Amino acid sequence: MSIDTDPDLTSGYDEVEDFEVVDDRSVSLFEGDEGGLEYAQRQALVALLKQRFISARTHPRDWQVLVEHERVFRSRLNDLFLDLQVDRDREVAWKRQATAEGGGRFPTLLHDTAWSREETLVLVHLRDRLRAGVAGGDARVYVDREDIVDYVASYRPVHATDESGDEKRARNAVTAIVKAGLLIATASEERFEISEAVEPLLPLELLQELLEALQQANGTTVAPETPATAEADLFEEDGA
């Protein structure tokens, strides 16, 4: 079973590289260049297009450029039928497909990606852990690999018999979430920091949709570990 989530240009998370530029003080960077952005702005724009999100934690240089020139980035994305989403409190920015007035659809550069059942459970667990940690005053929230694997295992369907296969899929799901940038590596291979991007990328409305889909496919009840609130979420998904 797979569940559609945020569309993206790429399926994984790549580290942003450092490139040498002959003269980054000029907006003309190569022969015939008619672009209007400076080098740092172009680099941040490319990072935003390539990655599911950028944040002050994972892309400090690009984040700073984006917040200083947010209107420029919004305009460039709008030209591509994309909408810029910025959460300044959590210091996270991401893109999503723009929705046409009247219900039509625009051409898109993005393609739908999907989280597997195990990856969805990992995301639900991370969101709950992050919210609980922040509510408890933690500046950064951590989680162990085995804790995640055990959480996924706790929702194995009653009819499931392939325990080793299920565990392998759970561990692969952790790896996938790490590649997506939503789990940040620490000095220990078995311990991760939960990215602040988890909550805006998995708002309450989408969380409920994922849980309902899991319940239907699983025949079990999957509930958030922290009480759900009825407050409006400012980061609703467009379902593309």
Task: Describe it.
The protein has 240 residues and is α+β, with helices and mostly antiparallel strands. It has two domains: 2-97, no CATH class; 114-218, Winged helix-like DNA-binding domain superfamily/Winged helix DNA-binding domain (Arc Repressor Mutant, subunit A, Orthogonal Bundle), CATH 1.10.10.10. Helices cover 39% and strands 13% of the residues. It is built from eight helices and eight strands; from the N terminus they run βαβααβββαβααββαα. The strands form three sheets. It has a three-stranded antiparallel beta sheet. The chain has a three-stranded antiparallel beta sheet with strand order 6-8-7. A hairpin with a 5-residue loop joins β7 and β8. α1 (39-50) crosses α2 (60-68) and α4 (117-135) packs across α8. The longest helix is centred in the middle third of the chain and has 19 residues, at 117-135. Residues 1-7, 9-16 and 222-240 have low confidence and may be disordered.
Structural class estimated from helices and strands: alpha+beta
The assigned CATH architecture of the largest domain is Orthogonal Bundle
Distance between the termini: 18 Å
What name goes with the CATH superfamily of the largest domain?
Winged helix-like DNA-binding domain superfamily/Winged helix DNA-binding domain
How many strand units? 8
Reading the helices and strands in chain order gives EHEHHEEEHEHHEEHH
Number of helices: 8
Biggest sheet strand line-up: 2-4-3
* Proportion of residues in extended strands: 5-15%
Features of the shown structure:
240 residues, alpha+beta, three-stranded antiparallel β-sheet, 39% helix, globular, disordered C terminus
